Amino acid sequence: MAAERPYVDVDLPAAAGDLARASTPLDFTPVYEAWFEPCLRWLRALGVPDADLEDVGQEVFVVVRRKLAAFEGDKLAAWLYRIATRTASDHRRRAWFRRLWTRGARIELDGLADGAAGPAEAYERREAARLLDGILARMSDKRRVAFALYEIEGYSCDEIAHIVDVPVATVWTRLHHARKEFLARVAELQTEEEGR
Amino acid sequence: MKRLRDQREAADPVLARAAELLAARAPLEDDAARRQRVRARLRRRRMAPRGAAWLRAAAMVALVCSVAVASAMIGRVARTIRAHLEAARAARQAEHAPAHRHHVPAPVAAPAPVVVPAPVAAPAPVAVPAPVAAPPPSPRTAPTPHHAPAVAPAAPAGDSDEQRLLVDAVRALRHEHDPARAERLLSRYLDRYPDAVAAEDALALALEATLGRDPPRAAGFAVRYLARYPSGRWAALARRALDP
After folding, report:
1. Which end of chain A is more exposed for a tag (fewer CB within 10 A), N or C?
2. Which 3 state secondary structure label does DSSP give A196?
3. What does the radius of gyration of chain A's CA atoms come to, in whole angstroms?
């Protein structure tokens, strides 16, 4: 499964083990270099919009830098994931307040540089992404993370279990329920589209 | 377990649609430039003087205080105005009330007409004639029936209609291969929502719908597009339409 991923950069368990063995306490630089990109993927699965990924990723690593000296143990990925979860949740809360002031006006930066396809194709892709985000937003956090990491980011269930720090069977269960929910919502959407 | 996104060719239409939706979100790719950028920002942040944080906190506190004071003042002004209005209304009612009203004080306190027809309890029905006891129609309630329907239809139609027109147009263009209908829908969209957020997309879609079919109309849309968005995302397409 892992070979299907478009990127092969970090072997998550190995990276965590190596770093933990290399030095205690851990240095910030190698942790940042190895885990920044995976962290962004987790944040995306946690529902952070692409346009905010960089900023929220930065916030995660501000916390990591502050707390790294106190980190003990070998579950670095799970520790980072917990920080990412809290940061994403803070971001969501702040975004909610921001939307109150800006009345929901949001510029999707992803759409701006999309000059390759024709207007209809670009619009259709954006619309599909909007629908997908809508469906994912209605899922519970646990299901959404398992689903997005597996279906969108291409992680294997073992890797997800390692990051989220739960048994693999739990990941399979979450994924199973998430897929069922996702397909039910897609079926609803399709009925709605056909009804028009 | 096979990933959903790999099932675009599935016979089940729900599976195929799910795969289509998932394909709209590509996996996040590594970006060394982004990593460097954030790294540099983290370094700058570490070097930033700590005073800046205090200053920001102080500004926040000042802002919160001023908002609290302002809202308290607004509340006080509102209360004063309301008190004045109530006093004026009471004075008006006192003026209109007939001289014998003081015999029966209860109906004055009860504003709702429903309460008044408690004639069972009233000892002397002659002393309380129904039309007098009924409170005079409030000046606020009277004119509303004339004003209400004029405002109603414009507001709630909003987003859903806007979205539906665009989605239907894209479907007509891409799936039903009916550019004429797409153009009609888009023209309607542009007439109704000329300054909408998606007006640029609508113009570009209209351009695409007319491009191979009706060059003069396509040129018209291209001119409109370039006039509004000279360096927009689809400016190159618009220029191509003007100069094939």
Report:
1. C
2. coil
3. 18
Share the mean pLDDT of chain B.
75
Global confidence as pTM: 0.60
B contacts of A61 (beta carbons < 8 Å): 38, 42
Residue A149 Rama label (left phi>0; alpha psi -120 to 50; beta): alpha
Contacts of B23 (CB under 8 A, 6+ apart): A128, B5, B8
Assigned token pair, B198: 């998606």
- Give the number of residues written for chain B: 244
Q: How far is CA A175 from CA A112, A164, A183, in A?
A: 33, 13, 12
DSSP for B30-80 reads P-HHHHHHHHHHHHHHHHS-THHHHHHHHHHHHHHHHHHHHHHHHHHHHHH
Of B22, B28, B197, the CB nearest to A151: B22
Phi, psi of B46, deg, nearest 5: -65, -35
ipTM score of the complex?
0.78
Check if the beta carbon of residue B25 is closer than 8 Å to that of residue A129. yes
Pick from B3, B15, B24: which is nearest to A132 by CB? B24
**CB neighbour class for B25 (10 Å; exposed up to 12, middle 13-18, buried from 19):** buried
Q: Is A154 on the interface with B (CB under 8 A)?
A: yes
